[in-house]
């Protein structure tokens, strides 16, 4: 069940994992992973510029037309050289439905910076977010199999 260091027949050293269904590979640096996870744990805000919503909710699953962007936080300029409107809601990434953006400009820049490599894995970050780390056995609140962590 756990990934282990393994010396293969071709004399290379690597990681052997018997059950591939239990492995998730995040194709980014640890710094990017920590920053993205932090954005998910914080009150709803744009993942690129940090523009916060006016009325934070307990989870980051937002509906369209809910939680407009704060005017003082939204000072960047979009493609039309206009300030992003304070009345625009934070919108979710269409693929992962987790990353939030205040404008198309922020979404495009965040995609180039790091979201492209993480988008397909965001659901696993969301599962990690929902884990209960207060017990000795880490179990998901949604009755998923227990997680184990390792550094290779």
UniProtKB/TrEMBL annotation:
Keywords of this entry: Metal-binding, Zinc, Zinc-finger
Protein's UniProt keywords contain Zinc-finger: yes
Protein name, UniProt field: MYND-type domain-containing protein
Molecular function terms from GO: zinc ion binding
Pfam families found in the cross-reference section: zf-MYND
Domain MYND-type as annotated: residue spans: 46-119
Region (Disordered): 54-80
């Amino acid at each position: 069940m756990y990934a282990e260091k393994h010396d293969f027949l071709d004399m290379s050293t690597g990681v052997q994992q018997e059950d591939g269904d239990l492995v998730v590979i995040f194709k980014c640096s640890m710094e990017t992973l920590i920053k993205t996870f932090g954005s998910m744990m914080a009150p709803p805000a744009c993942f690129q510029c940090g523009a916060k919503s006016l009325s934070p909710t307990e989870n980051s699953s937002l509906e369209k037309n809910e939680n407009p962007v704060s005017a003082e936080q939204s000072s960047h300029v979009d493609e039309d050289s206009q300030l992003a409107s304070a009345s625009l809601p934070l919108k979710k990434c269409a693929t992962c439905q987790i990353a939030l953006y205040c404008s198309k400009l922020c979404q495009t820049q965040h995609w180039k910076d790091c979201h492209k490599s993480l988008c397909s894995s965001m659901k696993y970050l969301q599962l990690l977010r929902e884990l209960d780390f207060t017990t000795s056995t880490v179990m998901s609140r949604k009755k998923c199999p227990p997680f184990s962590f390792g550094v290779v």
